[in-house]
Amino acid sequence: MSTETPTPGRPRAFDEQTVLDRAAEVFWRQGYEGASLSSLTKAMGINRPSLYAAFGSKEELFKRAFDRYHETNLANARAALEQPTAYAAIEVFLRASADNLTAGGHPAGCLSIQGGLACSPENARISEILAAGRAATEAALEERLSRAAKEGDLPDGMDSRALARFVMALSEGHAVHAAAGASREDLQASVDVAMRAVAALRPGAGG
Amino acid sequence: MSTETPTPGRPRAFDEQTVLDRAAEVFWRQGYEGASLSSLTKAMGINRPSLYAAFGSKEELFKRAFDRYHETNLANARAALEQPTAYAAIEVFLRASADNLTAGGHPAGCLSIQGGLACSPENARISEILAAGRAATEAALEERLSRAAKEGDLPDGMDSRALARFVMALSEGHAVHAAAGASREDLQASVDVAMRAVAALRPGAGG
DNA sequence: CACGTTCTGTACCGAGCGGTATAGTCGAGG
DNA sequence: CCTCGACTATACCGCTCGGTACAGAACGTG
Q1: What does the alpha-carbon distance between residue B9 and residue B12 come to, in Å, rounded to a whole number?
Q2: Got the DSSP string for chain B?
Q3: Which of B55, B87, B126, B191 has a 20 to 30 Å separation from B95 between CA atoms?
Q4: Are B31 and A33 an interchain contact pair (Cβ–Cβ within 8 Å)?
Q5: pLDDT at position A204, please?
Q6: Smallest CA–C1' separation from A14: which nucleotide?
Q7: Chain A nearest CA to B55, separation (Å)
Q8: Does residue A38 lie within 7 Å of nucleic acid chain C, judged by its CB?
Q9: How many Å apart are B6 CA and D13 C1'?
Q10: Any idea which nucleotide's C1' is nearest the CA of A61?
Q11: Which of B118, B176, B189 is opposite residue A31, by nearest beta carbon?
Q12: How do residues B121-133 score in pLDDT, each as one tens digit?
């Protein structure tokens, strides 16, 4: 990142990253199709032509905003997975996820799901982009658990892909709950149950 | 239900339940806000004024369609829960759910989630209606598991509300996966993992 | 301080939205 | 068989949608 690009002409009155975060919040709260240009520009604090000059279209704006959101989320997930055992990695992943889903400073739940699970045919790309983001997170999980399997840190015959899918699905379900108003404690209690159950998957346990 | 209501005037050219099912499919595939009146009437095979005469508004149409969908789903869930043990009830619930989420004859996934997790403020009621539907299913689960707890069919100290939330969240996550194209086998493999883990919650096990 | 360039703000575009007025159609009762 | 009443079909309503033309404002450069 160069600190100072020599731009001719009038400089921008807004910070691109800042307005992208504001846009992400609107998409998050209202979904892609529920987020009108008016509500977006209002929340971003810029006018329509500025938005189009900077981002090109509503869809491109969404992609940019989601990319930013997703990179952060994926980094958080990878960080959570840096635990010495598969059990600990799963627990930290689920607990951090539950915290994030109900944290202040942004809407409840998860943009990857609220953004637009189902869209009209002309916006089908949006659903695909979100699905690809979720798949990337699941792939990171699987990678970690696959390593655990090689290290003997999972029971023999354990399908690490299926285990990753199980953990990811639980986290997505928590996102659905969070979007409907579930509290941090609600979700953590569900994680308690999950971990009590997942303990059976430790290599030592009689799984 | 009276079999024959003596209606004066011209009789309807469509069956109400049939067109409600068609409408549900469109909402399911495209979400409430992504489902336009044009796509709805086209799929339902009726004209706009017929739709409005019969159902009043797009929102009322959605409520009627969703009620029908939800009643069936809830009945299926209750039937699945009629198993002698909590473990079996959870397994049948999750397996039937995974089957339904990927069954032919209707869109993949679950209307309760795809219909509109996040909507624009003027359609916020839609999200609430869907959330209430999901909560009803979770309540049925909890009721069954709470009974199991009383029967000594769950480990002491097991929080049946949290367990119900855990099972429901997993099922919702499977719905998200199904909406993105996961296969029946993908979901059943996740259920395999879940059941292997949940076995630890059997009263006999050292949970 | 005039210039070229880029941004900002207003005002607007065609299209599609959810919803409806109106006229014609069809079946039942007198 | 005629009339009444609810249904169907066309054509339309005001409104908001995503997107843009254009004029003015603000910066770096000569």
Answers
A1: 9
A2: --S-----SSPPSS-HHHHHHHHHHHHHHH-TTT--HHHHHHHHT--HHHHHHHHSSHHHHHHHHHHHHHHHHHHHHHHHH-SSSHHHHHHHHHHHHHHHHT-TTS-SS-HHHHTTSS--GGGHHHHHHHHHHHHHHHHHHHHHHHHHHHTT-S-TT--HHHHHHHHHHHHHHHHHHHHTT--HHHHHHHHHHHHHHHGGGSTTS--
A3: B126
A4: yes
A5: 73
A6: C7
A7: 22
A8: no
A9: 35
A10: D18
A11: B118
A12: 999 999 999 999 9
Between residues 88 and 117 of chain B, which touch chain A (CB distance below 8 Å)? 109, 113-117
Task: Give the per-residue pLDDT at B25.
Answer: 98
Q: In sequence order, which residues have a C-beta less than 8 Å from that of residue B170 and are 6 or more positions away? A: A166, A169, A170, A173, B94, B190, B194
Q: What is the structure's pLDDT at A206?
A: 54
pTM, entire model:
0.95
CA of B48 to C1' of C20 (A): 10
Convert the pLDDT of each residue in A33-63 to its tens digit. 999 999 999 999 999 999 999 999 999 999 9
* Of the partner residues B29, B173, B192, the one whose CB lies closest to the CB of residue A173: B173
pLDDT of residue B1: 42
Residues A109, A101: contact at Cβ < 8 Å? yes
Q: Measured from the CB, is A30 under 7 Å from any atom of strand C?
A: no
CA distance A125 to B147: 45
Q: Over chain B, what is the mean pLDDT?
A: 94
**CA atom of B28 to C1′ atom of C27, Å:** 36
